[in-house]
């Protein structure tokens, strides 16, 4: 009986030791992977501010009323095709950059009063991603983002309205990919 207890406690110790070892290995792997994507992060609290969330959704709603093209969706799984999970935040960084630089800034006199507040909110998110890089080959990502940009360009004015109308989707995608 005493022997049995002893061997059981030995095997328990063994299991514990292996678990510890496994944890250390996992931790080391994570630490090794960290430098690449650790900057691809946005603070969760930024997505929990009712005021800016409300303004973003109000703006999107307003624009989507003016969007008469229901066949095209810009923000969706297409953007992630062939892209590794850990690079999704980088994809959204690129989409956010495009949205700010080529859609919202040139339209900043439209859709007031919400536009200005939403631009400053999204700029803050964009700044948090300024050091975000990808872990490997970025060609696939560039291609996906380029396809989206070309779709917007092809739709002309309507394309820009559509981007604004999908700001709610951009909000959710950024949160899902970067928090
Ligand atoms: C935003 O807030 C206003 C009141 O300030 C409210 O009427 C509106 O329904 C809210 N919209 C969303 C999308 O949360
Ligand atoms: C967009 O990306 C370009 C090139 O990386 C950068 O110079 C610019 O500051 C970015 N703009 C925003 C609004 O993040
Ligand atoms: C849809 O919107 C575009 C751009 O605002 C406009 O040029 C076009 O005439 C509209 N089409 C319809 C069917 O309303």
From TrEMBL:
Organism: Peromyscus maniculatus bairdii
Gene expressing this chain: Il22
Record's signal peptide: 1-33
Molecular-function GO terms, alphabetical: cytokine activity
Name recorded for this polypeptide: Uncharacterized protein
Domain of life, source organism: Eukaryota
UniProt record similarity statement: Belongs to the IL-10 family.
Keywords: Cytokine, Secreted, Signal
PANTHER family: INTERLEUKIN-22 (PTHR48488:SF1)
One GO CC term on file: extracellular space
Pfam families membership: IL22
Location relative to the cell: Secreted
InterPro entries linked to this entry: 4_helix_cytokine-like_core, IL-10_CS, IL-22
Keyword Protease in record: no
């Amino acid at each position: 009986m005493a022997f049995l207890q002893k061997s059981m406690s030995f095997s328990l110790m063994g299991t514990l030791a292996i678990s510890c070892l496994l944890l250390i290995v996992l931790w080391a792997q994570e630490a090794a992977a960290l430098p690449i994507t650790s900057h691809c992060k946005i603070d969760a609290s930024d997505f929990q501010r009712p005021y800016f969330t409300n303004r973003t959704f109000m703006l999107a709603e307003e624009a989507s009323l003016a969007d008469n093209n229901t066949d095209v969706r810009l923000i969706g799984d297409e953007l992630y095709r062939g892209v590794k999970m850990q690079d999704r935040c980088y994809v959204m960084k690129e989409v956010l950059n495009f949205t700010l630089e080529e859609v919202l800034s040139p339209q900043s006199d439209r859709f007031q009063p919400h536009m200005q507040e939403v631009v400053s909110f999204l700029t803050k998110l964009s700044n948090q991603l300024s050091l975000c890089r990808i872990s490997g080959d970025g060609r696939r990502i560039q291609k996906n983002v380029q396809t989206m940009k070309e779709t917007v360009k092809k739709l002309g004015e309507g394309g820009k309205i559509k981007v604004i109308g999908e700001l709610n989707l951009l909000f959710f995608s950024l949160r899902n990919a970067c928090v």
